[in-house]
Specification:
227 residues, alpha+beta, six-stranded antiparallel sheet, 3 helices, 14 strands, 22% helix
Length: 227
C-alpha cells in the first residue's frame, strides 16, 4: 500500500507540474488563414508519404574520394518522421505538424513554428522562415527506398577513372539515388536539412510556408492564455 501511495503521489506531483507549465492556444482562423493552414497539412502529408525521410546532421568534404565511392562530400544522416502530433505543454484546438530534426522537434502552428529542444522552446515566424528545395545525388549504402529513383551506379572503392579498384576484394557496387533536400532556415539561427526519398514532394511544402507568411492572422485572430 505504501508503494502504491508513493506512486500515486509522484504521479499527482508530475501532473500538477505539467499543468502549471501548460499553455492554452485557441485559434479562430479567418477563411484565408484556414485555407493556408490546410494547404500546409496537405503538403506535410506528401512529405510523410515518402518511403524514407532523413535529417542531415552534418556534412563535410572528402579528402580522398577513392575510399568513399567517389563522393565529394560525406553526409551523416538519421531517419526522421513527419507526422501530426500534439506539442508538449500546449493544449490547442488545432492539429499541428511535427518534424524531427535531430535533438529538436519543429511544431508547425498556423502563425509560427515552435522549436522544441532539451533547453526550452523557441519560435520562428513564417515571414522569416525560408524553405529551399533541390535535388541531390546520394550514394546509397543502405537499402534503396521503394520510391527512390536510381540514376547511376558506382563502387565502394573507385579508381581514378571511376571504375572499381580491384585491390579491394569486398568492393561492391552501390546505387546512386536522386533524392530531394528541403532546407529550413531563418535569420534567428534555424538551419535544418531534410532528405526525402522521392523528388517532387518538397515544392508544395515550400509553397505552403510562403502562403502562411502572406496570410498571417490579423490582430486578435488568435488568443493564448496560461492554463
Amino acid at each position: 500500500m505504501l508503494a502504491v501511495a508513493a506512486a500515486a503521489g509522484t504521479y499527482a506531483a508530475h501532473t500538477r507540474d505539467a499543468l502549471q507549465k501548460t499553455v492554452v492556444l485557441f485559434y479562430d482562423l479567418d477563411p484565408d488563414m484556414e485555407a493556408a493552414y490546410a494547404k500546409l497539412h496537405t503538403a506535410a502529408s506528401q512529405l510523410a508519404n515518402c518511403a524514407a525521410a532523413w535529417h542531415i546532421e552534418a556534412s563535410g568534404k572528402v579528402h580522398d574520394r577513392k575510399y568513399h565511392a567517389g563522393a565529394s562530400d560525406l553526409v551523416r544522416r538519421k531517419s526522421t518522421s513527419i507526422r501530426k502530433a500534439e506539442p508538449p505543454y500546449v493544449k490547442t484546438n488545432i492539429e499541428t505538424v511535427a518534424v524531427g530534426v535531430g535533438r529538436q522537434t519543429l511544431h508547425f502552428f498556423p502563425d509560427r513554428v515552435l522549436v522544441y529542444d532539451q533547453n526550452g522552446v523557441g519560435a520562428v515566424g513564417y515571414q522569416e522562415l525560408h524553405v529551399d528545395v533541390g535535388a541531390t545525388r546520394f550514394i546509397e549504402s543502405e537499402s534503396v527506398p521503394r520510391d527512390a529513383e536510381v540514376v547511376d551506379r558506382t563502387w565502394k572503392y573507385v579508381n581514378k577513372s571511376g571504375g572499381p579498384d580491384k585491390r579491394f576484394k569486398d568492393n561492391k557496387e552501390l546505387p546512386i539515388c536522386r533524392y530531394e533536400e528541403v532546407t529550413l532556415s531563418s535569420q534567428s539561427g534555424l538551419n535544418e536539412v531534410l532528405q526525402l526519398s522521392r523528388c517532387g514532394a518538397g515544392s508544395g511544402f515550400a509553397e505552403a510556408i510562403s502562403s502562411l507568411g502572406k496570410s498571417m492572422p490579423k490582430e486578435g485572430a488568435c488568443v493564448a492564455q496560461a492554463a
